[in-house]
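Lecture notes, unit on protein representations.

Consider one protein chain, 329 amino acids long.
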Amino acid sequence: MAIGTPLTKFLLDEQRRYPESTGNFTSLFSDLVVAAKIISREVNRAGLIDILGSTGAQNVQGEEVQKLDELANDMLIRTMEHGGHLSGMASEEMEEIVKVDGKFPKGSYLLLFDPLDGSTNIDVNISVGTIFSILKRPDGSDTTTKDFLQPGIRQVCAGYILYGSSTMLVYTTGHGVHGFTLDPSIGEFLLSHEDIRTPEKGKIYSINEGNSKHWFPATSIYIEKIKANEKGYSARYVGSLVADFHRNLLKGGIFLYPADRKSKNGKLRLLYEANPLSFIIEQAGGKSSTGDKRVLEVVPEELHQRTPLIIGSKADVEEAESFWKYQEA
């Protein structure tokens, strides 16, 4: 499809390829796009209105809630709950799921999201993002937490919105990865990156080396190995997962947030971060791993489950996995 194609047209054209489609997913995705535009506007006004800094509260993860976290979380819920396409939502910021209230019609989809990944970087004007995952609700009369505990291979859609020098939406429904850039002059996302393919091997590694004192031997050995590579790897770590992932998706490379002695189960959230990004990277020709298992095959046991994450170019991830045989406590 031509570069510059509006996202609305792109979605409708995709829908027409499947005669059995009801249009419910297209409408759901359109509601999500509205929320993305509103959050983008607020992020771009962050220095002009009182939405910087912490609220003084902590989320279920024990992390400080930023004002923009709260705003983005509320905006997604308010925008998505009335469309009649969802039966429930789960947010990284909330301990319990959000059931669609009885005053709104219920749908057959479930939405999971990290409303504003990397929000602490807002104060210093570094790119942040929203990560989302869409599942089909299992048959049943009521929506429960258990409905959300599905392995990543069951996702029907995953994506992220990057709020940076431009606002970009990247998503997959299992038929390739496509990127759209928001044109603020017309208020529409336009196709800018069709059928994104990540390089087979990259030259960038992204890891928080401030955690090196806690690393298991596998991580230390691997990082020292790529540093010694004669062809040279460049270290690039923003501390905003969406920004680091997006760069490596386009340029090639590897992002690592492995388990360590401090976080033996990993640090990132399986349902809100690892699963959606893993779905995207696999659709782009890359790979994602916990170190010894495909992320998308992990069966969640709890809503806010954490996981190690090694993700990026296929050859780089496979090389990193080969080092995990040295893992020990």
